[in-house]
Amino acid sequence: MELTPVLAISGLTFNHPGRALFRGFDLQLGTGVTWLRGENGAGKTTLLKLAGGAMTPHGGSIRLDDVDIAAQPLAYRLQAFYCGGDLPQLPWLTMRELFDLHLSLYPATDAALLDAQVQALHLGGALEQPLTTLSLGQHKKVQLALALALPVRLLLIDEPFNGLDADAMAYLRGQLAAPARLARQCIVLTSHLEPALPLARTVML
User: Fold this and answer.
1) What are the structural domains, with CATH classification, of the chain?
2) pTM, full prediction
3) How far apart are CA 130 and CA 128, in angstroms?
4) Which of 78, 101, 69, 76 is CA-nearest to residue 88?
5) pLDDT surpasses 50 at 2
6) 3-class secondary structure for the chain?
């Protein structure tokens, strides 16, 4: 583990109604791939959403490098992306408009790189389709194209291989295992299957 963690979670507290899920939870992660494991209901998805800023903890702190999510939420979110497989509730957008929206939200993104991911995942023919017309597999690939292209420090992917065909799974594994990516990103993923990736660590909840 790096001397200075990329993601530092300290004293995390989060409760679902009537149930304490995290209480004083600590986790420090460096670059590379972390496989987050646990039984259904252990809090894997919730932890990813908390670390990505999609949910707000009830206590404790979450830091990405030197950026605290509570003190600098916008700066934090510019360096993190949560990929859950479900698209944002923006049914009036086409796929292309959704990509353009993310290019504006993450201005450091290389548009050519995003286009390359779109083509590699065979989404190019559906760019003008409304999001509501996409199949479940296309929804997943749209999220993954963004995950692979956005220049974030923290990449959080919930069940990345669900709903993918064999070619897309092989492509995703190759992208996530790229040495340059492993050196610069902290990647946290959940998977009920062995990820078949070079793992920096495994965390059991």
Assistant:
1) 7-204 (3.40.50.300)
2) 0.92
3) 7
4) 101
5) no
6) CCCCCCEEEEEEEEEECCEEEEEEEEEEECCEEEEEECCCCCCHHHHHHHHHCCCCCCEEEEEECCEECCCCHHHHHCCEEEECCCCCCCCCCEHHHHHHHHHHHCCCCCHHHHHHHHHHCCCHHHCCCEHHHCCHHHHHHHHHHHHHHCCCCEEEEECCCCCCCHHHHHHHHHHHCCHHHHHHCEEEEECCCCCCCCEEEEEEC
